[in-house]
Queue: 2 jobs
Job 1
Amino acid sequence: MTAAGWPGLLGRLRAYQESELLFAAAELDVFTHLAGESHTAGELAGMAGASERGMRMLLDALTATGLVIKQDGCYASRPEVSALLAAHSPENKLNAVRLIRHGCDQWRELAQCVRQGSGIKTGWFAHDAELNRSFIGAMHEIGFANATAIAAHFDFSSRQLLLDVGGGPASYSIAILRKYPHMRATVADLPLTLEASREYIARYDMQGRVNTAPVDLYADAAFDFGSGYDVMLVSNVLHMAGPEDNEAMIGKLAKHLDAGGMMIVHESFIDHAVPSVERAMFALHMLVATDEGRCYSYAEVSEWLAAAGLDDIHPVEGVFEQPSLLVASKP
Ligand SMILES: C[S@@+](CC[C@H](N)C(=O)[O-])C[C@H]1O[C@@H](n2cnc3c(N)ncnc32)[C@H](O)[C@@H]1O
């Protein structure tokens, strides 16, 4: 939608209301209480410790948006919605809901972030244990399908040791090692994040095959996670930092890559010639959420890879809808 006039503009201005509806329903555990059961507004209000008036209005709005079904004065959740939003569902995305809600607080400061050219509440994932855990959980909820797609696309049958750089929940290590039982991996990340990484490594029974290595990729002058790596994956890390820091980080990483090894960069690449609303919004999210992060083009990241002494640098298309993969080799 470009020039939709006042009705279209009004719709955009009010779009936050549907987000807030979902955030409140998740906070009040509405979809958990409604999973496989139907209840009156009064019953749900009791379970959620809420007013009956407020709960009825919330449920009627959820019904209007199609997320809840109302029948004979009782409300029920659609199974596909409960699968995603009920706390006891193994596939729930509630960490992602919490992370996006946290993002709303950051976006509320957008104008000030534009004035100053950087985020205001940044870096919390390195020191706020609760937010970090939720952030890493969200990365897994959002990323495991992408990790599985990467494991399916690349042929790692001749590779032995993966370095999962800024690997967070280890989703990519887990997906790749599940497909290639002979491989081992190291997840290199900040110490606080690694506490969460180890939970995911244990959840997927990968303790014997996936190690963790504490590192600050940007502050550490050199890395001590050893050598022997014939694959490195830098997934969704570069957008969190500025260009100089990224170039230096890739230079340090390349020193630990074996000759003949490959480096895969998985990123939200941006192509200014082909504007994408999703990518433009993600880039803005990096403005509010980080000090210097943004989205980069293939050309920018290719320059850093070349400066690190890597060659055969090329994008890989077709795995994801948007530009997301750049690969390089160490001669
Ligand atoms: C957006 S998450 C990506 C996680 C995972 N690679 C993925 O693609 O889902 C970014 C990761 O980079 C890590 N990270 C951020 N700054 C870092 C730093 N200075 N040193 C090491 N890791 C860092 C975070 O802890 C987090 O795990």
Job 2
Amino acid sequence: MKHIILGNGPAGVIAAETIRKNSPLDEILMIGSEDSPPYSRMAIPYLLMGNIQESGTYLRKDASHFDKLKIDQLHGKVKALDAQKKQLIFEDQQHKPISFDKLLVATGSVPVRPPISGIDLPGVHSCWTLEDAHAIAKLAKSGSRVLQMGAGFIGCIILEALASRKVELTVVEMGDRMVPRMMTELAGGMIKQWVQSKGVQVFTDTRVQEIIKSGSALSVKLSNGKTLEVDLVISATGVKPNIEFLKSSGLETNTGILVNEHMQASHPDIYAAGDVTESIDFSTGQRIVNAIQPNAAEQARIAGISMAGGHAQSIGAMQINVLDTLGLISSSFGLWSGAKGGDHVEIIDSERYKYFRLEFLGDVLVGATTVGSTEHIGVLRGLIQSKTALGEWKNHLLKEPTQAMEAYLAKAQAQSAWMN
Ligand SMILES: Cc1cc2nc3c(=O)[nH]c(=O)nc-3n(C[C@H](O)[C@H](O)[C@H](O)COP(=O)(O)OP(=O)(O)OC[C@H]3O[C@@H](n4cnc5c(N)ncnc54)[C@H](O)[C@@H]3O)c2cc1C
């Protein structure tokens, strides 16, 4: 049996290792298009901070790790999949088409490039690959003027790295708050205040309209009437599943590759895992793209077992967002923006940057948002994931929301089947 793993990020690597563990004799070939060994994008901020060298981003530190597991590696960019012939076609002529018995597509996401005049100028970079990180490191020097477009998940994560490089930083976000797709209005507003208190200029409800070359700098025109001169623009306006190359493949896609609970795509011998998928949301049963690394790892484990002929299935992708924005920890889970017909409770302490909100549907906790504390994170996740009927504990929580641990111990522990 020949397995091809297309993509060598966290999803590809975990799937390849899982197949090897379950099928010691099968042939496994992992393909990646970037110049470096398999690495973790999550480690890029630490590289920018100077806390690690490039080798610190590598997913497996032992250079012979994949050889020892008899996982072959190939460097090349695939430009098309012929699902009917079960073949991958490469961009360059040097590589002949390759056939597979089973294929995993784990090609991740690509950054969204907003249609702004000047977006392709030198000095405008995404922060997605190691190559991007090196380009940013060259321009983001102490005292450099940096404009970051977008204050979403990735945007907030890289703020710390940029701040540590002592740049003069401006963040421009078109939403009405920071992290609008992960945080409630109050929580996002609190994060904005925190970031401003650390010396970062933040414009929300503002768009970048145009970027023009201005001598050795860039002149950036904003929708609020201001024009800023900067040395570097970082485009962090979101990512989308990397599926362009699948256009003529016959595989069913929407925003991402549609997969079932075994991570199987619309062809019985083709699977997908990680950022590239559109799977089922645990909370709503609707399709969702959940582009975070824990999701990639879990889907890869399930895909690997399934491809090796075993049985594993997903309970659905749960939204779990934990964010560190210049030292302020925030999190959101499940239906954090509320469920139709549900109710909620909220505690706000703006002065101390603390926020806690629970969302209920009936007597079940379905979502939560926190700012400024980490102590409840595991318990909130557990209560939401277990769909525990809280009974009288719901009323306790409405009065004292931070008693989540007590509610968990009283109700969810007794019903621990979800953990098995
Ligand atoms: C700066 C930064 C910080 C982040 N921080 C966090 C965090 O704190 N927490 C978190 O959960 N997530 C974080 N993420 C997101 C996380 O990195 C992704 O969710 C994760 O990388 C997804 O893994 P993946 O294997 O699906 O895709 P990827 O890691 O994107 O890997 C896909 C691989 O496929 C290869 N590939 C793509 N197309 C082709 C092709 N046509 N031919 C051959 N090879 C191809 C790519 O080169 C790449 O190596 C961060 C991302 C960035 C950029």
